[in-house]
UniProtKB/TrEMBL annotation:
Native organism taxonomy: Eukaryota, Metazoa, Chordata, Craniata, Vertebrata
Stated name of the protein: Delta(24)-sterol reductase
Record's bilayer topology term: Single-pass membrane protein
Catalytic reaction(s) noted: lanosterol + NADPH + H(+) = 24,25-dihydrolanosterol + NADP(+); 5alpha-cholest-8-en-3beta-ol + NADP(+) = zymosterol + NADPH + H(+)
Pathway: Steroid biosynthesis; cholesterol biosynthesis
Family: Belongs to the FAD-binding oxidoreductase/transferase type 4 family.
Amino acid sequence: MSALWSVGAGLLLLLLWVRHRGLEAVLVHHRWVFVCFFLLPLSILFDIYYQLRAWAVWRLHSAPRQHAQRVRHIQEQVREWKKEGSRRYMCTGRPGWLTVSLRVGKYKKTHKNIMINLMDVLEVDSERQVVRVEPLVTMGQLTAYLNPMGWTIPVVPELDDLTVGGLIMGTGIESSSHIYGLFQHTCVAYELVLADGSLVRCSPTENSDLFYAVPWSCGTLGFLVAAEIKMVPAKKYVKIHYEPVRGLQKICEKFTEESKKKENSFVEGLMYSLDEAVIMTGVLTDEAEQSKINRIGNYYKPWFFKHVEKYLKADRTGVEYIPSRHYYHRHTRSIFWELQDIIPFGNNPVFRYLFGWMVPPKISLLKLTQGEAIRKLYEQHHVVQDMLVPIKSLEKSIQTFHVDLNVYPIWLCPFILPNNPGMVHPKGNEAELYVDIGAYGEPKSKQFEARASMRQMEKFVRSVHGFQMLYADCYMTREEFWDMFDGSLYHKLREEMNCKDAFPEVYDKICKAARH
């Protein structure tokens, strides 16, 4: 009873303090209070609900039967929209705050919301080595489903809450992408409900134009209702080698060298300053030295980027064996390194042991509760960007990031970009090795100004024939946007499939210049 009184008194004092300081002031300057006492417990409840739901669906084997019924309901909604006179654009009815993107989509309030409740794994075809899933299946859900069967997917983008639909309609990448390409390149078929309510399947050999146009289209060609993704055999561990490298030229040379080696299952770089980095290479294996196993995903373990930094500070190489699923989601607990700005003491051993099992808070809940003051603060003083550039331009690109942003750590992830039709492909006629440069955090550059600095970055990326991930804030004009991306196939299909009255153009959906 005394413990309950203590908790009650503590909560009362907290509420009085919040009332004294003002809720907005607490949310802006002491956000960790709100996150620790409210969002972390709420995130746990979210996880429990979805895990119980997934378990029930699996036990009842109900996903395939319900899938057909749900798709028919989507078709009925689209046909109803046509009967109403097609007066408004359509979009998915999923609330904007539920997406992992930090951008808040205001179009949800003005467009016709089509409810799409598709979040199940439908079929695992071991003979074809393909898994068929619905668009709201998350990466955490999918790896948890496949790994016990001895399978995984070739590209497992980092964060647990990333969805298959978001990774196809947007894009996704992982440290295995130097072999397999982006997430879209591991998909073998899509199923979509089009603007006329019809259900269409597309693949490289069936409705191939639509298959290649769907990635990066952000839901402006139709509603994705299922996808078939390649599977590869899973192994127990990733044998990972850490190598600190100093000097920008040496970092770029080492990273490029390792990215070209197909014997590396995984390649990743973390830059902690302009001339300090740790290059990591990994190989899948079923055997491990017991003394070198590091279950980095356990809640009490240090955040991965902090763990990696130890090798840089000690100036030594190292080898570890990380359980495969822990490796795939190694940046999840700290949301890369974003969580250190929200919970500054989050990597403290005491916090990790007592509360680490509740981390991370759901990104969707962070968005839902951020308020206008925090949103504006983040927009002006925070950057979350992934720029995809040819690896031959890596050194110049990092220098540009340093001058315009000066954000560290910087994430480096190589990927092979095939010369396929669609919005994103190399300039030449052959596949080319690219690198994702990820900048997440508060810019330290003295001349940083959100709009001007990002427009300067976008101009540079266009100049080297690179691409900007579309989940982030984009400041380009329409002409600049279509200079960066190849819209020829996309616009052709929008015309042929009567999309212009049904869905906004991708530029109007994601770019700030179009939304303001």
